[in-house]
Amino acid sequence: MTTEPNGSTRAYAITGGVPLRGDIRISGAKNAATKEIVAALLSDEPVTLHNVPDIGDVHVTLEMLKGLGAAVTFSDGTVTVDASGVSTPEVAEALSRKNRIPILLMGPLIHRFGEARIPALGGCTIGARPVDFHLAALKAMGAVITCDEQTYTASAKRLKGAVITLTYPSVGATENAMLAAVKAEGTTLIQNAAMEPEILDLAKLLQAMGAIINLDVNRTWVIEGVPILHGAVHRIIPDRIEAASFMVAAAITGGDVFVRDARQDDLLSFLNALRRVGVPFRIEEDGIRVSKSERIFPIALETDVHPGFMTDWQQPFVMLLTQAEGVSIVHETVFEDRFGYTEALTRMQANIQLHRECLGSKACRFVNRDYRHSAVIVGPTLLKAADIRIPDLRAGFSYLIAALIADGTSRLTNVELIERGYEDIIGKLKKLGAQIEVEG
Ligand code: EPZ
Predict the structure, then answer these.
(1) How does DSSP classify residue 237?
(2) Ligand 1 midpoint to CA 171 (Å)
(3) What is the pLDDT of residues 81-139, one digit of tens each?
(4) Which end of the chain is more exposed for a tag (fewer CB within 10 A), N or C?
């Protein structure tokens, strides 16, 4: 029995070989929910969010707000945050290093208190994950920021609108600048910004709260600051990463699954890739059905910011490509260190080689750097069951998929990482017929 540093001995024992069949409903998007909970700090009136997934990252974020003095309820997928009682600009140290959310509290706390103290960040280990763009954006708006190993301290009498040009369309930095700009004095432009569907969803909530916010041409958010934001009710979009992951699981096991609430709008580039490898799918009114393909074809693909093929689809898709007939290439251009998880797949007999070269045509920040950010995958290979420790959230789902097709029973440990981001993952997989036992 393996004991994790957090004391957990829980594990999933998965026996491969069962085609997934049936119907599952995708939960609300983790990467929208956590940011929208933070947005509630911008108002003294209650903000109600529906379709909130019951996952570790949501609970950590709610604890963070409670620690500040907000009143929070969460039941049946609905969160209500009343931030009127928030009484401190300091995020609790105990919640440090759990996820990437605390840095987003900087703007909202400065608006309330003229200062913010934020503990060091956590999140998946998929690269260095600096926050220099976040800090530069807040500084451009007038914040004075200092940091030591434990804490970021930021202060400003009043944040001011600014022209912010991001070096790269970072999701977190765009959200951070947005959460600061909505109540800043004057107009803010966030140029070269991210425009992922989760960010659009955040913008919709902010608009419902009274913000004046628009996505202009050339990746530019234009935000006119307003002095007060109000309460609002908002429904969070379905999770496009969960949707894509289940579609791959259905296809690779040779099954037939209706992925309810999967939205074509948010999955265009994923569905194109699915089409190119030959996986049949049908768009229906309330979801997407994926069924068995006779053959899986190899392809070359590159991850990118939205509307490109997202980096969080890469891990399940690499799994699919291990079953394609021929040589596939995947060039990861968003995070420099997002193929570490393939080592365990190689132990399961997958044929995956990593390269430092950019094996693709997109401009990539990792060219001539020492990062193994391209993968060559040769398929199809029969995978053998293995005992694997999960290194990060998205890798965790790809190991689940690997175990579902492997010969024998695999044992996955450090499963709390999966539960950070996927609601009722075991319940959903079992409903589709997967053979999974939870140990410990
Ligand atoms: C968000 O991370 C998501 N996390 C990630 O999902 C997702 O993979 C990523 O966006 C890309 O879509 C959350 O929403 C909580 P970035 P984020 O800032 O915001 C570099 C998951 O499993 N960068 O867009 O941290 C950075 O190192 C997670 O749900 C800087 O250099 O991603 C990376 O190479 C994993 N300086 C690139 O930009 C900065 O200040 C993109 O990162 C900020 C980012």
Answers:
(1) P
(2) 6
(3) 999 999 999 998 877 666 789 999 999 999 999 999 998 776 555 566 789 999 999 99
(4) N
Pocket test for ligand 1, best of 125, 171, 331, 333 (most atoms within 8 A of CB): 171
Residue 430's H or E segment, with its range, is helix 425-431
> pLDDT tens digits, residue range 208-218?
999 999 999 99
Which of ligand 1's atoms lies nearest the C-alpha of 305?
12
Where helices occur in 324-388 by DSSP H, the ranges are 342-347
CATH of domain 11-26+238-439: 3.65.10.10
Output the CA 52–ligand 1 centroid distance in Å. 21
- For residue 349 the two structure tokens come to 């007999």
> Which of 315, 334, 420 has most ligand 1 atoms within 8 Å of CB, for mutation?
334
* Domain chopping of the chain, boundaries: 11-26+238-439, 30-235
pLDDT digit string, tens, across residues 175-206: 999 999 999 999 999 999 999 999 999 999 99
Query: How is 173-208 classified by DSSP, letter by letter?
Result: HHHHHHHHHTTSBSEEEEET----HHHHHHHHHHHH
Report the nearest atom of ligand 1 relative to the CA of 306: 12
Counting from 1 in the atom list of ligand 1, the atom nearest the Cα of 99 is: 15
Q: Ligand 1 centroid to 336 CA: how many Å?
A: 11
CATH architecture of 30-235: Alpha-beta prism (3.65)
CA distance 19 to 291: 10
387 vs 151: which has the higher pLDDT: 387
- Cα angle 37, 43, 44 (rounded to 5 degrees) comes to 115
Does residue 358 carry a catalytic annotation? no
